[in-house]
Design brief:
alpha/beta, 3 domains, 26% strand, Rossmann fold, 421 residues, twelve-stranded mixed sheet, single chain, four-stranded mixed sheet, GMP Synthetase, Chain A, domain 3
Length: 421
């Protein structure tokens, strides 16, 4: 590594992260507690929104929208670097604008590098990325750049990255990918599943990387079966950065990035969930002194994991379950995560893509993109499969579409409940 690269702040931070990942859980918690206390103190002294606010109060997207400038610090430490703003539309249609500093960006890049190092990626290989392009519109034919981005540029990675907008038709994406023949492929899980079901084969592919949406176990297994490569997920958000990275040991657990943020998983009563329990994800950022996000209810649900066999002290999440709006609501008020498996539908009829929308406690609309018209007896079997998977005799309405619209952030949800939460 040359002297110029050694001066990059993300590389210096990465070296420290390579040590702290092996700290004990207790040592990590103590360091995290000290950093959180400093952020809370700064927020109370310099951020109008937090003055007089209870430390136990949760912060919501609506709070961020309503607070506006009152959530910004009046005295950002100069050594944290230049200010910038970013926007997040999320999948719920509640856009927020976040202020941050160069220090926050340094952590994001260092954690991106940690992900690459954990999974031993070849930064001189070709990466194809199909996702929303935040820096502006891409040409219809996509674009190619040297290196995978600002983070990997710090390591001198020279592999090309080909970029294509997520909105391109699946057939266009498939032709584009065949031309580029990548070794790594990055996109949203629902988009990757559509490419897999399209019959796309990529002979040089080494790994599939998923971002942006919840990765269901069934989708992970389908992608792995079709392309015969590892499928690696990353849990992040535009507001807080990298939240958890999938462990390279093969345990299937996600390691919370405790050096950058705290993650609480809370039950419906606000109590901390134990390993194996699913609850709301609440995040506090540890380095954003421009706009501290303290106990931010990010909108996701996750399952708490057990300590990982890899011996890293970083806490774990067993899975990212989804959002509250992705929970099935039964007529008695009970909520559960629906088990609406794609493979079961595909075995019955030529289903290209599906979405289930619960309009009321007794009725579900099944939306399908199909290769040919579905026959009456197939609809009957599809209805039975949905009722079996959801565990209730719902009234099923069938709708057939040419494609599914995505949210402003490019996300797609295969189950959405419109029942009043």
């Amino acid at each position: 590594m040359n002297a110029r690269l050694e001066l990059r702040p993300e590389l210096s931070l990465l070296a420290r992260l390579e040590q702290s990942q092996w700290w004990s859980a207790q040592r990590l918690a103590r360091a995290q507690s000290r950093r959180l206390a400093a952020v809370v103190r700064h927020a109370r002294e310099t951020v109008p929104f937090y003055r007089g606010r209870s430390e136990s109060a949760l912060l919501t997207r609506r709070d961020i929208q309503d607070a506006g400038e009152a959530l910004r610090s009046r005295n950002v430490p100069s050594h944290h670097g230049a200010l910038y703003t970013t926007r997040s539309s999320g999948s719920t249609g509640e856009p927020v604008q976040i202020a941050a500093t160069a220090l926050v960006q340094t952590y994001w890049r260092a954690l991106t590098l940690r992900d690459h190092l954990w999974h031993r990626r070849d930064l001189d290989a070709k990466l194809c990325s199909i996702r929303p392009h935040l820096e502006g519109p891409l040409p219809a034919e996509g674009a190619v750049r040297r290196g995978w981005g600002a983070a990997t540029d710090a390591l001198g990675g020279a592999g090309p990255m080909a970029l294509l907008a997520l909105g391109a038709d699946v057939s266009v994406q498939a032709d584009w990918l065949r031309r580029h023949d990548p070794e790594y492929l990055l996109s949203f899980p629902s988009n990757l599943l559509a490419l897999a079901e399209y019959g796309l084969r990529l002979p040089r592919l080494r790994e599939v990387r998923t971002v942006g949406e919840t990765l269901p176990a069934e989708t992970r297994e389908r992608l792995r079966a079709v392309w015969n490569v590892p499928v690696t997920d990353l849990y992040s958000s535009q507001e807080v950065g990298v939240i958890a990275i999938q462990c390279p040991s093969g345990s299937g657990l996600y390691h919370v990035q405790s050096e950058s943020l705290t993650v609480e998983v809370l039950d419906e009563h606000g109590r901390a969930c134990a390993a194996g329990e699913v609850g709301r994800v609440v995040v506090s950022t540890l380095h954003n002194f421009a706009m501290p996000l303290l106990r931010y209810e990010i909108g996701d649900y996750a399952e708490v994991g057990a300590p990982c066999p890899c011996d890293r002290g970083l806490p774990t999440l067993a899975r990212i379950a989804g959002r509250k709006r992705n929970m099935l609501v039964l007529p008695n008020g009970e909520r559960r995560w629906p088990m609406s498996g794609f493979s079961a539908y595909r075995d019955i009829a030529p289903i290209r893509q599906y979405q289930l929308v619960q309009h009321d406690p007794e009725r579900i609309e099944a939306r399908f993109v199909v290769d040919r018209p579905v026959r009456a007896h197939e609809e009957q079997r599809l209805g039975a499969a949905i009722r079996e998977a959801t565990g209730y005799p719902f009234e099923i309405e069938f709708t057939y579409l040419n494609s599914f619209p995505r949210s402003a952030g490019g996300k797609f949800e295969d189950f959405v409940s419109m029942v009043d939460n």
